[in-house]
Amino acid sequence: MDEITQQLRNRAIALLARREHSQHELTTKLAGSEASAEQVAEVIAQLQADGLQSDERYAASLVRSLVARGQGPLRVHQSLKQKGVSGELARLALEAADVDWFSQAEMVQQKRFGDVTTDTPKEYARQVRFMLYRGFDQDQVRHALDQARQRAALTH
Length: 156
Description:
Elements: H1 3-18, H2 23-30, H3 37-49, H4 55-68, H5 73-82, H6 87-97, H7 101-113, H8 121-133, H9 138-155
Helix pairs in contact: 1-3, 2-3, 4-5, 4-6, 5-6, 7-9, 8-9
């Protein structure tokens, strides 16, 4: 292994020691050096063979992180694709996470809005926009807001 390849490997290992990286992210970060694209690809292939870099592990890690931050499935999927994870791998990572997206939407709505009711069209629209921005689909948003209305009805 020549000196440049060894430096690339050391740099990649240092990056991976901090957190998981997708193949795309590593390629982007390592490409800024004086190394050729072939050397970068060779180093990443070797890291994958050694089990040090895995897009599957990265996808699972990112899904867990985004779900913990209250993101919905559409936003998580979009983030995975932006990070260079294939569509199929993103879908599999979302399925493997085994998240109940309806209860996740309820928790996010409750945490953000508490006991604020959706009685007025303006407030309802505001909460819908927030939930859609977080990456929940229409059914999940409707479910969360219906649950919020039921909670409000029980307390009044």
